[in-house]
Structures
1.
Amino acid sequence: CEMTREIFERGHAVAVLPYDPDRDRVVLIEQFRVGAHAAFASGWFANDASPWMIESVAGIIEKGEDPEDVARREVREETGCTVSDLLPLFHYLPSPGGSSESVFLFCGRVDAPAVGGIHGISDEGEDIRAFRVSPEEAFALLDRGRIANAMTIIGLQWLRANRGHVRKRWLGKRA
């Protein structure tokens, strides 16, 4: 039996969960996502679901780019923070049934004393609000279903399980 299958070739991406271990703060972003807008109209989501998604930082890897370089650039563009260290977490396939896309997920060490404001590249139509919260506040957003983005869910669950280890690694005896 001959079979034909279609695949969506999207390319590859990075995602970064920016974390400030000195202040014990997570940096998140919020931006409008048209795919979420369409999905929320399906009836499968709560009536108050918002297409303004709370997410970790993410970006597409162009041909010839290094994932770590892209991760650092995207954090700077979307939050104004500089990454001083990157921990590779996972390299995974978000939707292997119909897409060849893969995601390199990192936790990025940042210094985030006063994250806020609107960021992004205007030529790319980005309108991104950056903000920082305690890990407990981020986990509460996750637990209430306010975060519906897989890469952010994975990153926050990883931080929930590994926060002490990360602080010890990055802060040493000060953790």
2.
Amino acid sequence: MVSPQVPLHPAQVEAAQAIYNSAHAGSWRRTDGALAALCSAMPDVNPAATLLKVVTVNSLYGTNVYAVDRAALHVADVLNGAEGLLRCRPELVEKMAAIPPPPAGGATRMHRSFASKFAHFFIDHDCFPIYDSFALKMLRAHLGRDALAADPTPTYMAFEAAFRTLAQKAGLGSDTRRLDRYLWMIGQYRDWTRNPSAQINSELRDLFQADPPELAVAAGAWYHPRA
């Protein structure tokens, strides 16, 4: 059976962007601005610069990487070994996500959310959309669960292909940031409407409680008016 699909309309993405530009999302914008400033100030791929970038994106976006020094060395090795077009291919994120275990041993853990955010903010935001649980749930909601199969943690290549499919269906072009913001915002909104105690971003929780008029447009069929 093919799972149902909820169409995405450009007006929803534009409404989410309007919210992002408003006073309701000041902390979110400052966070993104800080990452952009760091990218401009430290464009090189060397151990010190990469470590600072890893620590910053891990702290500001909560990507749950604990071995930050090992992660930074791995990311620098991957980027220094990447050639030409690979630097704008989804396989690059998959390689960065495979942070090796410590010398004492253990399994390689995949940190796709971390790697996608590093690539998005410090390599090319249009090449690398952000992979996280909210984006995954929203892609499945819009494209049908079959779009990303049954794997709860699909590869970044599968995620990126689904993201591009949704962008194409909605006529959004190649600017990933607007769709990224919509997926993250409304993915959390859906969780919040189902469970007001859900673990979501605190600034977005305040936004949802304020219920600005743009939220109804952005949420579309998932909008729940405040009582």
